């Protein structure tokens, strides 16, 4: 990690960062199929708005881009309000990313690779308040992120890794890793009185 502002941050949001070699409409079709062709899938709409936000940056004239920027800002707020998914266009997003469920999702990564699966209540972001925005996680290709996972800091989740439900990750994870939360402790309550005491 470094506190020196990288060139990638200086260029943040200034260009179309949709995947290269495929058109905007082809991306939307692929994302639609990735979400099992469910038109009302909240995950599909979050990604579609993200793609649109990047596409508009390919319009070099600020004046011509202005109406599309206004539309993007309205759409991204609608996705946050109605789908519970925050995914800014400045996140570099790969292909065939699947958001399986909606609600409580703040996906503030530096980048999310190809074929990544993400479930509800997942958070990507900086580790501490006041950290620079480039100290956010990088999620490599084919990772599977479980419900409630929190991945923070300028770390890398290596490709083909699985992050279990409700895990907090603040250090690098090597490729092909499985990260799980500590198993809960299960104890037997021997009497009705013990059960009542446990709930008080």
Outline the structure in words.
The chain has 5 helices and 14 strands. It is of the alpha/beta class. The chain has one domain (7-179): UDP N-Acetylglucosamine Acyltransferase, domain 1. Strands 1-4-7-10-13 form a 5-stranded parallel β-sheet. The protein has a 5-stranded parallel β-sheet with strand order 3-6-9-12-14. A 4-stranded parallel β-sheet has the order 2-5-8-11, with no helix packed on it. Helix 2 runs antiparallel to helix 3 and helix 3 packs antiparallel against helix 4. The longest helix is centred in the middle third of the chain and has 22 residues, at 62-83. The model has no long low-confidence stretch (mean pLDDT 92).
Helix content: 25-40%
The major pleated sheet works out as: 5 strands, parallel
CATH architecture type:
3 Solenoid
Number of distinct beta strands = 14
Identify low-pLDDT runs.
none
Number of domains: 1
Oligomeric composition of the shown chains: single chain
Number of helical elements: 5
Q: In percent, how much strand structure appears in the residues?
A: 15-25%
Distance between the termini: 46 Å
C-alpha-based Rg, rounded: 19 Å
CATH topology: the name is UDP N-Acetylglucosamine Acyltransferase, domain 1
Average of pLDDT: 92
Element pattern in H and E: HHHHEEEEEEEEEEEEEEH
């Amino acid at each position: 990690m470094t506190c020196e502002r990288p060139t990638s941050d200086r260029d943040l949001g200034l260009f179309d960062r949709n995947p290269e070699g495929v058109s905007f409409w082809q991306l939307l079709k692929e994302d639609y199929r990735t979400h099992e062709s469910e038109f009302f899938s909240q995950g599909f709409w979050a990604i579609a708005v993200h793609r649109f936000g990047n596409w508009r940056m390919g319009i070099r004239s600020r004046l011509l881009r202005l109406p599309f920027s206004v539309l993007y800002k309205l759409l991204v707020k609608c996705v946050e309000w109605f789908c519970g998914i925050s995914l800014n266009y400045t996140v570099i997003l790969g292909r065939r990313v699947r958001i399986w469920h909606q609600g409580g999702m703040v996906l503030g990564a530096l980048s999310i690779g190809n074929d990544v699966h993400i479930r509800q209540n997942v958070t990507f972001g900086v580790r501490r308040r006041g950290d620079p925005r480039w100290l956010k996680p990088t999620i490599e290709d084919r990772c599977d992120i479980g419900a409630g996972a929190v991945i923070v800091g300028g770390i890398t989740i290596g490709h083909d890794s699985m992050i279990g439900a409700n895990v907090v990750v603040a250090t690098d994870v090597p490729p092909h890793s499985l990260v799980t939360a500590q198993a809960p402790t299960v104890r037997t309550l021997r009497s009705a009185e013990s059960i009542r005491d446990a709930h008080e």
